[in-house]
Design a protein that fits this description.
globular; ten-stranded antiparallel β-barrel; alpha+beta; Lipocalin; 240 residues
């Protein structure tokens, strides 16, 4: 392994650790922000939630380095539910349904938690979108439960369309993927994923239409259950 490969692996490990931490904070944010003030006898758990709430609030304050390019990513923030259609399926019959939540940190990074119920079962992923101030391009990192770690580069095609592309080697073949996110309105987002091998033209892999929902509705059943348990604990009277 040469020095360059070693640096790339180290950078990847650092990035993965940072993204995992951000995603964990993003998942915990609703419970922390929604909690009431701690009362005597409620235990250290409530104090930890209050500390997390303060930390999340600090992370949501814009960085002095945040600029117009970073602010444009804020259109994806919030909770979303989507219908998904894979290539070859009838246009009037969705193949699956998805939920995703997106939060902005320091005005620089959009952290996404994604969940899809499709024909092949459930699929989960975390992602981060950011503007790279050094290369003047947008980047997307995607981590999923299939052990896939992908990095895309992108740019705005127009005022409402952000396009990312990926090129890597898969099973000895060059694989390319293009993601097109269209911000149709404040409450609607369209996604189109196209794929190709080698020099073949792109072919549609899936399309989706997402509509804005309350952030709590886009958390997924596991996180919703955890929040309900925390709310029940807050309702318990203090020990005498």
């Amino acid at each position: 392994m040469n020095a360059r490969t070693g640096r790339l692996i180290l950078q990847g490990m650092i990035l993965l650790a940072a993204i995992t931490w951000l995603a964990a904070v993003a998942l915990a944010a609703p419970a922390a922000q929604g909690g009431a003030g701690q009362r005597p006898g409620q235990g250290q758990g409530q104090g930890a939630q209050a500390g997390l709430a303060q930390q999340v609030q600090r992370m949501q304050q814009p960085s002095p380095f945040a600029g117009t390019e970073d602010e444009r990513l804020g259109v994806w923030a919030g909770g979303w539910e989507e219908t998904v259609r894979f290539a070859g399926d009838p246009e009037d019959k969705p193949s699956g349904t998805g939920k995703w939540s997106a939060r902005v940190f320091w005005g620089l990074y959009v952290v996404i938690n994604y969940e899809l119920k499709g024909p092949d079962g459930n699929y989960h992923a975390h992602a981060v979108i950011a503007f790279d101030h050094g290369t003047k391009t947008y980047r997307l990192w995607w981590f999923d439960d299939g052990a896939n770690i992908d990095e895309y580069t992108g740019a705005w095609k127009d005022d409402n369309t952000l396009v990312f592309e990926l090129k890597r080697t898969s099973e000895g073949k060059v694989f390319r993927e293009r993601l097109t996110y269209s911000h149709v309105s404040e409450d609607e987002v369209h996604t189109r994923i196209e794929q190709a091998f080698g020099t073949e033209p792109f072919k549609m892999y899936l399309e989706s239409v997402a509509h804005r929902v309350a952030l709590g509705e886009a958390q997924g059943p596991q996180n919703q259950q955890r929040q309900q348990q925390q709310q029940q604990q807050r309702r318990k009277p203090p020990l005498e």
